[in-house]
Amino acid sequence: MIRTVPTAPYKDQKPGTSGLRKKVPVFAQENYAENFIQSIFDSLEGFEGKTLVIGGDGRYYNREVIQKALKMAAAAGFGKVMVGQGGILSTPAASNIIRKYGAFGGIILSASHNPGGPSEDFGIKYNIGNGGPAPEKITEAIFERSKIISEYKIADAPDIDLDMAGSFALAGMTVEVVDPVADYAELMESLFDFVAIRNLISGGFRIAVDSMGAVTGPYAKEIIEKRLGAPAGSVRNATPLPDFGGHHPDPNLVHAKELYDDVMSADGPDFGAASDGDGDRNMVVGKDMFVTPSDSLAIIAANAKCAPGYAKGIAGIARSMPTSAAADRVAEKLGLGIYETPTGWKYFGNLMDAGKVTVCGEESFGTGSDHVREKDGLWAILFWLNIIAARKEGVAEIVRKHWAEYGRNFYSRHDYEEVDTDAANGLMDALRGKLSSLPGQSFGDLKVEAADDFSYTDPIDGSISTRQGIRILFEGGSRVVFRLSGTGTSGATLRVYVERYEPDASRHGIETQAALADLIAVADEIAGIRTRTGRTGPTVIT
Ligand code: VG1
Ligand code: CO
């Protein structure tokens, strides 16, 4: 029995960098989730009888929304839904399942690195048939639809038991509750040299993986402990919890500090890694070395042939605009194509589908390849372990040698979180107003070469994305970038990205913030961050 329910539109269902994210109480409003899910279905065509994939990162409200989505998918006419057992699917695992089984698309329930719980964040994202996040054309259509929606359709049926694997009927549609880990683990095993990594570990190389109480726990347990033989307990915080055990599941130096401190301690592990809420981000640390995500992308690209899945070499590299140019130097040397896209994984999809790039990355702890169409935290961790096993060198040695060969791109991101929205918009508008007058101006030793608001034309389909971040480029390759976050749920978050290229190896040991101090000061001078936001410093430095 299909029920048609009248509803009134909400005006705030505009997807951001990665889907719609709101606080749980917002999502729990009457028909709020239903409206958005129906708006997704109303924006798609030709899915009658086809398969939809549904899963989430296990956060608070995950199960409730999955039940709604299942019944609405049945009412909309899907033939089958594949849903992760327990409602669990990491973002890269969902992408893999969509691709592997030729699904029409997928709904991923996650607010990624944002905290979870009754008063924290929830999110819904739609992925298309290539397994990647819906492009802007579709997210725009969903938003437009959400503004005028007047009814949704839902099957009147009992809830599906998400904890029991198997096939079930739901109002004429099949629901297949699938093992969330098996296909993904098999994919990883096909890409990396598990024998070499297993030997590395059995030879005494100690690793610690922090799943931060979020979705990667079961994946890391299966792969790192079971298949690669790391001792039990190597994976920490391995049970996905609705509130992530109170953790802020963002793998960076602030939120994964415990792991970092452990690896840096005298008798700590040789290698540490962490993943975010939905499993698409990664942080990698070795003894005496934190690997910046931008460097990680460059090093993975430079050493790709170490991994069997990439032994033939890679087609090209793509990075988001704020990500450092470390990867550009690798591309140049190896004669590979390099692409600079706006922030957000959705911009990489076309390049991968067209075979232009194999490896992609973002400064925000995101790295991935064309094995799926999402960034992939565990993939990056395994890639590092494979490189370490193949080169028989530790993290710090690999990184230092990379800098010596290519030069070092000193890099840092300063976030000002929950800033007053008007103040943040005012700051960006004022910067935009200054762009034409900046080139030629000097600030101490730094002379502005160019300044613009980044705009991207997709080389495959010609679509244009404007206002993607303000860049101030200095002579010699240093730069400062300003953007407002598109994933936050309260106030505005100002992100300031600072980068300096240093070819001289004798200067590579300088502490990052010190190496960037003059640029950080100039960023404040040009944008008036302190005066406009009332903040004396950033909330998070990565
Ligand atoms: C942030 C990151 C961006 C990333 C996005 C989604 O976006 O900066 O690089 O793609 O989160 O990642 P923003 O708009 O807040 O800067 V995730 O792990 O939330 O799916
Ligand atoms: Co994420």
Automatic annotation (TrEMBL):
Cofactor: Mg(2+)
Start and end residues of each Alpha-D-phosphohexomutase alpha/beta/alpha domain: 13-151, 183-286, 294-406
EC assignment: 5.4.2.2
SUPFAM superfamilies from the UniProt entry: Phosphoglucomutase, C-terminal domain, Phosphoglucomutase, first 3 domains
Catalytic function, reaction form: alpha-D-glucose 1-phosphate = alpha-D-glucose 6-phosphate
Alphabetically ordered keywords of this record: Carbohydrate metabolism, Glucose metabolism, Isomerase, Magnesium, Metal-binding, Phosphoprotein
UniProt xrefs under Pfam families: PGM1_C_vert_fung, PGM_PMM_I, PGM_PMM_II, PGM_PMM_III
Gene Ontology cellular component list: cytosol
MF terms (GO), sorted A to Z: magnesium ion binding; phosphoglucomutase activity
GO biological process: glucose metabolic process
Top-level taxon in the UniProt lineage: Bacteria
NCBIfam families on file: PRK07564.1-1
Family: Belongs to the phosphohexose mutase family.
Protein name per Swiss-Prot or TrEMBL: phosphoglucomutase (alpha-D-glucose-1,6-bisphosphate-dependent)
